[in-house]
Each structure stands twice: as structure tokens, then as C-alpha cells.
Protein 1
Amino acid sequence: MINQQFKQMLTGKSVIRELSEYATARGREIGYENVYDFSLGNPSVAAPQSFTDVCVNLLQEKDPMAVHGYSPSLGNPEFKQAVADSLNRRFGMEYTAGHIFPTTGAAGALAHALRAVTEPGDEVITFAPYFTEYNPYVAGAGARLVVVPANPETFQIDIDVMEAQVNAHTAAILINSPNNPSGALYTAETLTALGESLRRLSARFGHTIFLISDEPYREIVFDGVEAPYISKFYEHTLSCYSYSKALSLPGERIGYVAVNPACEDAASIVPMCGQISRGLGHNCPPSLIQQAVAQVVDDTSDLSVYEVNRNIIYEQLVQLGFTVVKPGGTFYIYPQTLEPDSVAFCRKARDYDLIFVPGDGFMTPGYCRLAYCIDTDKVRRAMDRLAQFVREVY
């Protein structure tokens, strides 16, 4: 008999993927330039030329066996050291290569981090709205996801609400800043309060409550603000990162877990991730990509277009009467819908070829997500269409 758990999961297909597939099909009918698809968070800017040049050089100049051979089970040493040096240089940390575990993007990083600090039956707390894939990530580790709301006026963490949910079974807190889907950037004030709270709660319950920080949008921040480095605020932090957004490399599947050197059992966690990989069938990202990223670890794509797009959309939403928190980063914006039923709102928007994602899947009905990683000219045309939709329907 086939596995019934995974067969059952077939009935729960991603709403985001379904909407993206609809937009693609609709594009074949009327031309994709006429479909205003805000469904999928796929970067819209090219990878930096420096990355392409490094890849070409590696392929042309380096020993093919070194480029294409197996990476060590704990990752390419050059990549690990480059990541550690970069984090130390940028954020005043004290990582060594031994604190870095390369993964297949942030998804792979989260899969390892969750298994490293939880036992089956433990609880992991996260904050709504949150990335919907946290559900299978946490369930796959044998833990239970506990969802608490963030402050809807700011989408910052409400510490009091969180503390009411922490109990003896709480093993970890899972956060995402800048946040998908809200675009909220957790402030230093929020993170300081979170760190202080987790120290108190760990002492109260007699075990360390770990912080797992999902950070793929760390470099996409606006208004001249730098994202606070979350591990600076709490010693028992595992940072999960991906180069999918900063370097526009989602298809290359490259990221890492960075274990705070001050973390409990810090020396053991990366070797443990190697053992976790044996069960996941993970066994490191591609050797070529690890070697290439190691040489451009501080570079980014030209991310400025996302701030331009944010400003256009935010100003139009406010002008049209939407309630919306201005994003501090990412390429998402998360307005309240103009009726309580966000699914109905998004269905009506689709009649105008506006593809928005209802907030129900992010555990916040009454909102919708717009992923504005699309061409700026198309964003402007979409805002004209949005104005028509709002005027005619609402």
C-alpha cells in the first residue's frame, strides 16, 4: 500500500501554485502581458553578472572533478568559510566554518533546523500571517505548529500573546523577518523584547527554547534601513538563509543554516545536520553552486526595483481606501480586502485579470497578498486595473 499521509496531501494543493497556473493558462488566452499576476514570489531581476562570470570561469578553468564532484557531507569548506567571514564582517558575529551548514535553499535550512532542536511531539510557535509551507516543514519534523497572531496594526510580534502560548512542550519559536506575506521588518525593539522573553521562558520551563529565524529576504529592505541581524538578539538562534532572493538564484537551491556560536550545543548542531541529511536524502547543494556563491557572497542583484514597485502599489492602495501596513522589506504587500471574505474578493479581482492570493492560507482571513516582483511598467498598468475593479465592484 502506498503512503496514505502523502496521498492525502495531494488534496491540499498550494493555492499560490494553483493561482500561478491559472495565470499562465489565462496568459495563453489573452497574452501574459495582460494578466496582472501577483501570485508567485519569483524574483524578477537578473542574477548579478559577477555570479555568471564566476560560474563560467569555474566551468572553463577549474578541474571538472573539483567542480562536479561530491561535496563533503557537511558542505564545501570554501563556501562555509566565506559565509562565516561575511556574517562576521557584516554583523559582528564570531562564526567559524563549523557553524555553517549548506542547504538546498531556506526550505532545506528550515527542515534541518527544525529537526535539530525538536523531538516528535514538541511544539513550535510561529506568528500569523506566516508562510504556508511552515505547516509541512514542522509536521515533517514530527512537531506541532502553534500559530499566534501578530499585532495587526504593525505585524510586529505581540510578546504577551506569545508568552501565553508557551508551555513545557514548546521547543522553538519560528520567525520570518522581513516577513512573507506582510512585508513587515521586525524592529530592534521587537527583537530585544523577544530575546528577553525567551530567556525568561527558558528558565521557567527548565530547557532552552530555540529561535529559528527564516531570513531569505534579509537583503530586501527599504527606506535606507538595514535589517537587524536576529542572532545578535538571542544566543540560541539558528539562522536559515537562502540566496534565492538576494542573488536571484531560486532555481539553484542554495542556502545555509548558521548556528549562533553562543547557542546551546553549538558545536554539535552542524554535525547533527549532517546526520539529519541522511534521513532526508539531502546531501548538500550542488558543488558548482557552492563554489560560485563563495566568491560572490557579499554581492546582490539590483534589488532597487522592489522598492519602486512597493511605493507605487502602497500609494495606490491607500488612495483607493485600503487598510495596509507599509512593508519594510521583501517584495510582498498585504492589504485588508474590501470585504471580509478575502477568497471572494480575490475571485472578483480575477475577473479583472488581477491575480491576488487570499490571506486565508496565511491564517489571516480578510487580507490578500500581492507579490510585486514583476516589471514596473506592468505594476503601473495593474494599478490602473485595480482602480477600475474597485470603482466598478466596490
Protein 2
Amino acid sequence: MYLEPPTSTPESEIRSRIRATQEALAASGSDVLVGYADCWRTANVRYYTDFRPVDGVHGIAQAVVVVPRSGDPLLFAGDGCVDYARSETLFDVDTLDALPGSLARLRAGGSEQFVLAGVEQIPVGLHAAITDAVAPAQLRPTDLLARLKAVKSPWEVEQLRRAARLTDLAMEAVREVVQGGRAVTEREVAMAADVAMIQAGADTPAYLSMVQAGARSAFSLALPTNRVIEAGDLVLTDIGARYGNYVADGGRGFVFGPASDQVRDIVETAADAVEAGLAAARPGISASELNAVVAGVLLERGYGPFSGEARGRGTGHGTGMDPEEEMPWIGPTNEALIESGSVFTLKATINVPEVGGLRTERIVHLADSGLETLDFFPMRNYW
């Protein structure tokens, strides 16, 4: 299977997002949205342009979008990236050095309420420069953009279906190489997944692929090594594909060879927890209520001490242009209602020291008509 290369974001999508942002600014009493993104977490800027910052130093990994309540946005990119950014953007683009002056002019023109999306990731120096430029007005953090990103258009959902399909194909390649009759290492398994998804049409992996076998699978998050996968190993994989602007976040585990009763129980419990969440999810359910369903299975089966999700980390998160987006966060303290149109993961991680673990994850689209699963690779894998 090969997916055709992704198309550019339709102009109608971009214009609709700009209008929605300006309407949200007006409704909140804010004048200007400042959105920060970098080459690792791109969505706050890529929501408005197909430009993506490139990895590097001296500012080239950073970008800022400025959306006033009326008029066109402005994009600011690192020096050396501006021509590329202009080729991918519907509105004016300038260098990051020009950002403070542009913000100061907006302030002088009467803008008083500036809000910042991306406060958790923006560098201290850039944050200080923006704060100084808008003074004496204050720069306040906002979740306005996170709320807009959380609800996907039909076009966005289709991009995510394709990213999820590529992730399924990567897992099929993992199964083939593991069952291929020769000993393979964690690194070889991760490489097989990466090659398969790219050959099938992915731009890149969504993030560095994780493969952890045996006792190493008890690490919740780790990168692959030269450890050989052995009979009886429980193997954690967390693999996702990037297709155009959109990514899939896929956690799966498998047992290679005979499974002990303890290992089998880990696999079955994680799958049961996610399936309980899938059955409960509906538009209008609160994030905390949905979290309680998934975490409840983990706690009932005795995995509270061995699961970050059961201890309050949250059993799901938004996904879209970034593997993990701010909303909806499916967590115990989030009373917000999950809106129709949201795309998110439901997940259950279990990590038992010296035994192993896995992360079982599904990507779903919550629609008025019900829950749509975007990825389909099995959650119970005994190879």
C-alpha cells in the first residue's frame, strides 16, 4: 500500500481558522493572539500556515504567529527560513528580529490585551522580548488556541485517518520482522517500522520510535538499544507516522513467544481498560469521567502502583498536528466536556519492574454520530 503525498492545506481551511481565532479573541475581550511554535511542537504556528520551522540554532527552530482581532495575521520566522515561510503562507512573513517592532506598533495602535499560546515552550529570552514590546500592556497565557485546535474539521480528520493507517502499516512491519525467523534487536524493530511507514507515504516518523523489550519494557519512555528480543519478552512499542501536517500517536505492545500468566494479565488489563474507555466515550462526557473509566480498570486489577495513568497522569490526550496536544486532556482534574469533533487518544500504560510493560493506545474521533476509531492494529498481540 502507498498513500499519495499529502496536499497543501486548502486556503478555505486557513481562512476559516483565522476567522475562528478572531471571533474567539473578540468573545474573550482580547486584542491580539501571539502563538509560539518550534520545530518539535509545531501546531501553534502550523494551524495557520504550511510552514514548519527547521531544527537548528540561532532562531531557525522557532516561529511566531501574530493574529490581531481584525486584519491579517503576521508570521515571524528565523533568518534563513523566511523565503521558505513566504512560499507556504497566505499572509505577510518577516524575520523574528522584526517581531518586537510589529508588536509595539500594534500596542501603539490601541491593542491592549495580548494573549500567548505556547507559554510552556517559548524560550525565556523571546518571552521577555515580547513582554517588553507590548508593555505597559500585559502578555497573558491563554488556552484559546488549544481549544480551537482540539476540534477538527472533516478535512483534518481525513489527514489523521491517513496518518493512523500509516502507523498501522508500521506495526504490521514490526510483526513481520519479529516473526521473520531470526533474532532481532530493539533498534532493528524500530528501523523496520520507520522504513515501512516512510515507504508507504509518511513524511517522517511522528517522533523517535520507541521499542523496549523484556525488563526494559518496564521503562515507560525509552529509546531502543541493541538488546535482542528473546522468547517470553513483553515488548513495549510507541510508534507514530507523520503525514503532511498531521501525526498519529500509537502505543502497542506484544509478547514474543510463550507468555507467562503475569505477562498475559498485563496485556489483557491494558486492552480491557482502553476498551472500557471506548465504550464510554460520547460527546459531552467530561474528561474526568472518561478518565475514571479507564483508570478504574487499572486500579481494579491491582495495577495502581505500576501505571502512571492510574496515578493521575491522565488516560488520553488530544492529537493532531502534534503527537500530544493540550486539549482534550483526559485526566482526573479536567471537568471540561469533550466536544464533538475532537480527536484524541485513549491509553493505558502498565510498567512492572523486572517483569515488563506496555502502552496500549487507540486514536479516536468523537462525532455526533458516535465514536470513530482511526487506527485498527490489534491491542492484544501474542507472537
